[in-house]
């Protein structure tokens, strides 16, 4: 039996205290759509709950992403779940989908799961030589089948791809519409209440400061697409609007529901060179050794073993995938279907590198 109609649509957000999730929440709250939404968020700590409550969000306390029944219960009350806590946690995704399925049975209306993945899902392994792939993948291709083929052919299992495949299959089985948002290298300060965010640029700058010269993992010739955090969040906003709209066709979901996010790309060596230029200008890389970069910065190299230890990754494959691979994507679906228009690109990315180098040097001096 369907429940009475509510004037609000219910959104559950996972990851509200993180870089991506916190910024998504800020984007939703700042938009007029917030007047039509009832937003709840799962958080671990009472102080986080207090801050979110003051912002007009209903906080729900849980232990962690393994707190299956609590997540199911929270999702039972949601029309849309936006999951931005982990791209690799199948159990959390399963709990969300189970709860949404129960919700649909009660309301008689479609429920929706927006899963946050990552561009490493199509990344190659050029440093180890397992696979070298410079292709630019569009989200209008059959990405679902491409992922399946990657899993068959490549050495090593990708938890990111595995969870993507699970989300789509489980959503189809339970009757929940699923969408997978795929960000590449994210830059720009977060807009949430809890963290500004620390990404790949910060990691490379920290390594450069440790080695007293900019560093690449391997040759640094791998290329990643990039996206500013605010442009990424606008995809979640537009997708949510499209899902909840009664006046436009529903957005593609399931096997055709991949939404890449990008506005340009850069190589790892170009990032290192820019770090070298900024660091050289403020005097932190003087006298370093290494090959001369095209912009005048001297760039050194580290191998996968050293990268694994330095960045705290659990495997050589993770270290290579995040900081040495190529992951080139094209966000055609968001542009064509949602009318998405990213506003920040190469200039802002250069400013980000400069801000991070200067900021981390100043922080080191204070410490």
UniProtKB/TrEMBL annotation:
InterPro entries: Epimerase_deHydtase (IPR001509), NAD(P)-bd_dom_sf (IPR036291), NAD(P)-dependent_oxidoreduct (IPR051783). One of its GO terms (molecular function) is aldehyde dehydrogenase (NAD+) activity. GO terms for cellular component: cytoplasm. Pfam families: Epimerase. Keywords: Membrane, Transmembrane, Transmembrane helix. Residues 11-242 form the NAD-dependent epimerase/dehydratase domain. The chain crosses the membrane at residues 12-34. PANTHER family: NAD(P)-BINDING DOMAIN-CONTAINING PROTEIN-RELATED, PROTEIN YEEZ. This is NAD(P)-binding protein. It comes from Hyaloscypha hepaticicola.
């Amino acid at each position: 039996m369907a429940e009475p109609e509510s004037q609000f649509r219910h959104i559950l957000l996972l990851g509200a205290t993180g870089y991506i999730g916190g910024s998504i929440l800020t984007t939703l709250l700042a938009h007029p759509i917030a007047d039509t939404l009832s937003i709840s968020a799962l958080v671990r700590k009472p102080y986080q709950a207090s801050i979110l409550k003051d912002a007009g969000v209903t906080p729900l306390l849980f232990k962690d992403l393994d707190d299956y029944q609590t997540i199911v219960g929270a999702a039972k009350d949601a029309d849309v779940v936006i999951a931005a806590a982990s791209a690799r946690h199948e159990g959390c995704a399963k709990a969300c989908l189970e709860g949404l399925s129960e919700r649909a049975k009660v309301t008689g209306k479609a429920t929706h799961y927006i899963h946050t993945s990552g561009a490493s899902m199509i990344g190659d392994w050029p440093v180890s030589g397992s696979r070298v792939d410079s292709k630019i993948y569009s989200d209008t291709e059959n990405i679902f089948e491409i992922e399946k083929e990657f899993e068959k052919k490549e050495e090593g299992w990708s938890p990111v791809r595995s969870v993507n495949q699970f989300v789509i299959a489980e959503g189809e089985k339970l009757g929940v519409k699923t969408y997978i948002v795929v960000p590449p290298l994210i830059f720009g300060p977060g807009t949430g209440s809890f963290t500004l965010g620390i990404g790949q640029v910060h990691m490379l700058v920290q390594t450069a400061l440790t080695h007293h010269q900019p560093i690449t993992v391997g040759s640094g010739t791998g290329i990643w697409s990039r996206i500013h955090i605010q442009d990424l969040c606008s995809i979640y906003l537009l997708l949510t609007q499209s899902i909840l709209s009664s006046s436009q066709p529903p957005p593609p979901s399931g096997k055709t529901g991949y939404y890449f996010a990008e506005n340009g790309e850069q190589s790892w060596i170009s990032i290192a060179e820019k770090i070298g230029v900024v660091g050289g200008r403020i005097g932190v890389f003087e006298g370093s050794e290494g090959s001369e970069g095209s912009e005048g910065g001297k760039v050194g190299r580290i191998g996968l073993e050293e990268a694994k230890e330095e960045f705290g990754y659990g495997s050589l494959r993770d270290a290579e995938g995040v900081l040495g691979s190529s992951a080139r994507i094209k966000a055609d679906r968001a542009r064509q279907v949602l009318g998405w228009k990213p506003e920040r690109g190469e200039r802002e990315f250069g400013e980000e590198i400069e801000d991070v180098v200067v900021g981390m040097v100043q922080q080191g001096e204070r410490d």
